[in-house]
Design a protein that fits this description.
There is one protein chain. This protein has 13 helices and 26 strands. With 500 residues, it is α+β, with helices and mostly antiparallel strands. The protein has three domains: 93 residues, no CATH class; 97 residues, Pdz3 Domain; 234 residues, 2-enoyl-CoA Hydratase, Chain A, domain 1, CATH 3.90.226.10. Strands 11-12-13-18-19-24 form a six-stranded mixed β-sheet, sandwiched between helices. It has a five-stranded antiparallel β-sheet with strand order 5-6-7-8-9. The protein has a four-stranded antiparallel β-sheet with strand order 17-15-23-20. The protein is globular, with a radius of gyration of 23 Å. The N terminus is likely disordered.
Length: 500
């Protein structure tokens, strides 16, 4: 399994183009050509992309160069139709016509996946239309230093108390108050007035700052009695293994020492990251008897599997068969000594990519149960392709587990035939690991009683029309707007060695 190193540089120009560009074209048009030509070679669904003269890369424009490149990538993503849905494989319910997976990045993604963040270090979400809550805080971040914690109620932002959205609007995501909150979260400083669970309040001003992310937001062990102990871990991002594995080891060593009988892995806000870190987490969880059995396979497009990659071959040393399924199959190799036969995953629409891979890999191997709402739906991954000062990310491979199952483009739905468990909604009023937090409480109920609790958290809704709840698509779109640092990535692939 492999990854293109972020330090590699692929200059854009005529030598990158399968279709030569005219002389004296601008640098941005050369980049557009490179995006097109790499896509028709590496993209998983390359076969649906029109010919160069029909697609016309130079025709994509925007207010900025980034906008123009985004528009081109969006267009590439919409050609291949998923026969199961009649819509593009990269169809986004929230933003039709834009890419669900593909994007072109000018640096922030690589930095974040390395574990370095430059932001406030927190995110918010609505418990009800007039109840905005802190949903997570990253340790060591400016928000943590300011005293924020999950579940705190936000009563004012930058002096304004008009932060409730209109739930009766055709789409609350266009509400001016919600957009005010979104814009405030995008600034370099923000002033918040917050209410703690004990009803005391405080006001603080937070500035964007740089910090190293600890992707393990929390871990704890709870003795449930009758010989039952549950280990609970919140994992927020599949950062680079050098950043993530020491934190995972500390948590799982604690679980082993405590002698847990059941494990709950909270991935409700985890948008993915490195497949190598997903493999490591799977190996911490899987039974030791599964060592050396198949974990999953990366299935590349037909061109790459047939060793037909002239653009990559010009720049990198690639051996025949490097993209074959045989050479891109991972096998379990048990890490640590935790011994369990069942694992619960907490998921939401923000659970994506490498998070879903982690779950899918374990389904054929042990008792896997999902609690929460339908996950994002991303069974594909990519390696970054450097183009000038950008990196292009388009799906190059789809993943299949040991039972040859994948294809969860519509997401993983708890309590469905494929994904046993319980369907319920995020409870942002309680801290992570609180046994009364709705989703964690369902897992505890099943562990102790063999059945899920019947009560559920209130759905985001209009208090003037209690029956009028928001659709999951609207809720997910709102979550994406409010969490500006959330990404949905599965970074994998061969570590290509540049030619001299």
């Amino acid at each position: 399994m492999f990854l293109i190193a972020a330090v590699m540089f692929a200059a854009c120009g005529k030598k990158d183009s399968a279709t030569p560009s005219p002389a004296f074209v601008s640098k941005i048009d050369l980049i557009k050509d490179s995006i097109y030509n790499y896509a028709v070679e590496e993209y998983l669904w390359y076969d649906a992309i029109p010919a160069y003269n029909v697609f016309n890369p130079h025709g994509f424009t925007g207010a900025t160069d980034q906008d123009a490149l985004d528009n081109e990538v969006d267009a590439i993503s919409q050609y291949k139709i998923n026969p199961a849905t009649g819509k593009p494989y990269e169809y986004s319910n929230s933003y039709p016509g834009t890419a669900k997976y593909s994007f072109i990045d000018n640096g922030p993604v690589a930095t974040q996946l390395g574990g370095t963040h430059g932001d406030f270090g927190f995110s918010v979400f609505y418990n009800a239309y007039n109840d905005l809550r802190v949903k997570y805080v990253n340790a060591g971040s400016p928000a943590a230093t300011a005293g924020l914690a999950r579940g705190y109620k936000v009563t004012a932002i930058n002096g304004s108390t008009n932060i409730a959205y209109n739930p009766n609007a055709a789409n609350p995501n266009t509400d001016p108050n919600l957009l005010y909150v979104v814009n405030a979260l995008g600034g370099s400083t923000i002033t918040l007035t917050l209410q703690r669970p004990d009803n005391t309040t405080f006001t603080t001003t937070i500035a964007v700052g740089t910090y190293t992310l600890n992707p393990v937001l929390k871990y704890t062990t709870i003795d449930l009695g009758a010989g039952k102990k549950v280990g609970y871990i919140v994992f927020s991002s599949f950062t680079d293994p050098t950043n993530a594995t020491p934190k995972l080891d500390a948590a799982f060593n604690s679980f082993t020492t405590a002698g847990i009988t059941d494990l709950v892995v909270d991935l409700r806000y985890n948008g993915g990251g490195y497949v190598s870190t997903a493999e490591y987490l799977d190996n911490l969880i899987v039974p030791a008897a599964k060592t050396n059995t198949k974990m999953y396979t990366e299935v590349y497009n037909s061109k790459l599997q047939a060793d037909n990659y002239p653009l990559l071959a010009k720049k990198y040393l690639i051996n025949p068969g490097d993209f074959s399924q045989a050479n891109n199959t991972a096998y379990f190799s048990k890490k640590g000594s935790l011994s369990i036969s069942r694992v619960f995953f907490i998921v939401t629409g923000s659970t994506a990519s490498a998070s879903e891979l982690t779950i899918n890999n374990l389904i054929p191997q042990m008792d896997v149960k999902l609690i929460g709402t339908t996950s994002y739906g991303k069974p594909v991954g990519f390696f970054g392709i450097p183009i000038s000062n950008y990196s292009l990310y388009v799906p190059e491979f789809e993943t299949k587990n040991a039972a040859n199952n994948g294809g969860y483009y519509a997401g993983m739905t708890p309590a469905s035939t494929t994904y046993p468990g319980f369907y319920d909604y995020d409870d942002v009023t309680k801290d992570f690991g609180d046994p009364t937090e709705t989703l964690f409480a369902h897992a505890i109920s099943y562990i102790t009683k063999g059945s899920y609790t019947s009560t559920s958290a209130p759905r985001i809704q209009s208090l003037t029309a209690p029956a009028a709840t928001l659709s999951d698509d609207v809720v997910n779109e709102m979550a994406n707007k409010l969490d500006r640092n959330h990404f949905t990535e599965m970074i994998g692939g061969k570590k290509l060695v540049p030619r001299n």
